[in-house]
Structures are given as structure tokens and as C-alpha cells.
Amino acid sequence: MEKTFDPKSLEAKWYAQWEASGLFAPSGDGEPYCILLPPPNVTGTLHMGHAFQMTIMDALIRYQRMHGRRTLWQGGTDHAGIATQKIVENQLAAQGKTRHDLGREKFIERVWEWKAESGSTITSQMRRLGASMDWSRERFTMDQGLSAAVRKVFVQWYRDGLLYRGKRLVHWDPVLMTAVLPSRTVSSPHVARSHASPFIALMSPSSAVFRKRRATVESMERASVKRALVRRIFARRRSELSARGSSLLRGWLASSIA
């Protein structure tokens, strides 16, 4: 026996046997128990948050499985559209190309190639963690069946009045030429807030009107920063005067009492 435990020589071997034997698939006649894994993005690798979350889910699934319940841990990966597009575009930029050079169909092919490469890395990491999810049911959020299900549900919700379309301020990326989530924007008042302006989002970034209006917005932002600085200076001055006044008052009261 080795003096120290070597997980690489044992865990990979036994996990492969467990998966091949179908031990992670629902079985038996017990009460159903299912957990849906929030699918990690295919844009990179797992992080500590994923590991912590999957550890808890795996413990719950294994516990219920040992109690005879028909357990299913449904796993898969998320397409993360904008983030994936950005990564592929960066790869093209390193070659001196853009997605427009490739055309829509070729660019989509490159995105799918990246998905296959990055997605396999993530699922390999899940297996390395020992996650006992049913891999025979693995799904990707852009799978045809899932896409059809999403469209059906959203159309039904729209018809039931649960969804509606309306005009909203958006964070517009002038490079990707699309709206992005607030969490994907740079937290700078000159960048994030100007991109959220509706008149900028509706015009080409190369137009003269766009540049002029963005300059106006940035000028307004600089003026706002100056006003905030002046307010901080006055607030600090008021605080100093207040402290000085309190000190003088305490001195006067002390002399009066004496």
C-alpha cells in the first residue's frame, strides 16, 4: 500500500466504471427525486463556485439514491451567446480577421467548434469532481429539442399575457453591435452610462451624429463628476466647521460652569 493516497490512479478508473454501468441513471420504483443543474457556460472552465454548488447537489443526490428514491441529476452546459461570440471574435482578431470576413455561416461553424472544445473541458472537470449526474441525458441549451421547448413556453406565456414587449434602455456594445447584460459592461460612468443611452443604441457608431452626441454625453458626465467633487469639498468643509464649532461650544460651557 502506498504511503499517501493518490486520487488520480483510483477515482478516474472507478468513475468511468460507474458511468459505463449506468449507476447514475434513475432506477427502481421509489419516489422520484430530481435536481436540475444550472448549466455552466461553455466559455471557459469551472471555478470554485461551481465546485461548491456541485458538491452540495451531489451529496443530496447520492443521499436520496441510497434511500431508494428514483434520482435524476440533470446536467448540461449553457451556450452563453455573447460571451462565446466575444471569445471567438478575439481569436479571429489575433489572425487579423473579423466575423464579417468569414460570413455568417462560417462564423457560426467556428462558434460550434469552440463550443465542442470548451464544452468537453467543462464536462471533463465535472467528471473529475465525481459528479454523479446522468450523462446519458446531458443537454446543451442550443439543442434543437430544448430550443423548441423554450419557444413553445415563451409563446404560450406571451399569449397568456405573462410576457410583453416594451422599449427599454439597454447596454449597447458598438463592437458586437448588440445589447449586453449589465453584468457584462465595464463599470465606468463614461462607458457604461453612455452606452445605455437610447439615441446611441439606435445609431451607427461611425456616424457623425453618434460621435457628436456621445461627446455631449461624456461632457455631461465630466460636469457631473466636477459637481460631485465640489459637493464632497463642501461637505468636508461643513464637517470641519461643525467640529470646530462643537469644540468652541464645549470650551465656553466648561468656562461658564467653572
Notes on the structure:
By secondary structure, this protein is mainly α. Helices cover 59% and strands 8% of the residues. It is built from nine helices and six strands, in the order H-E-H-E-E-H-H-H-E-H-E-E-H-H-H. The protein has helices spanning 7-20, 48-66, 81-94, 99-102, 104-129, 144-159, 192-195, 198-201, 208-257; strands at 32-36, 70-74, 76-77, 139-140, 171-173, 178-180. The strands form three sheets. A two-stranded parallel sheet has the order 1-2. A two-stranded parallel ribbon has the order 3-4. Strand 1, helix 2 and strand 2 form a beta-alpha-beta unit. The radius of gyration is 29 Å and the shape is extended. Mean pLDDT is 78; it is low at 191-204.
Main sheet specs: 2 strands, parallel
Mean pLDDT equals 78
- Indicate the low-confidence ranges by residue numbers: 191-204
Number of strands: 6
What is the helix fraction of residues, given as a range?
55-70%
Radius of gyration: 29 Å
Provide the structure class: mainly alpha
Overall outline: extended
Features:
two-stranded parallel sheet; 258 residues; mainly alpha
Summarize this structure briefly:
With 258 residues, the protein is mainly alpha-helical. The chain has helices spanning 7-20, 48-66, 81-94, 99-102, 104-129, 144-159, 192-195, 198-201, 208-257, and strands at 32-36, 70-74, 76-77, 139-140, 171-173, 178-180.
